[in-house]
Amino acid sequence: xxxxxxxxxxxxxxxxxxxxxxxxxxxxxxxxxxxxxxxxxxxxxxxxxxxxxxxxxxxxxxxxxxxxxxxxxxxxxxxxxxxxxxxxxxxxxx
Length: 94
What we know:
Distance between the termini: 61 Å
Strand order of the largest sheet: 2-1-3
Number of helices: 3
Number of strands: 3
Radius of gyration: 20 Å
Strand content: 25-35%
């Protein structure tokens, strides 16, 4: 029995978590605004969930700009990992 428990604990320690980060360009669908205001957002919600959570397509319009995987988990309101695209841009010779 002890061997089973030890093997199970070892198996659990091998697991790893990862999450996907989405970068969106968000625009409000407000017909009363004179100028169109858009902004970039990072989220772990997929496009359908993000739009539904923020009021649906009547309220906002989103465009998916980028997506990438991050190791670890998002517990404790951790910052998202850096985009690999940003790393490539900072490392490229100019």
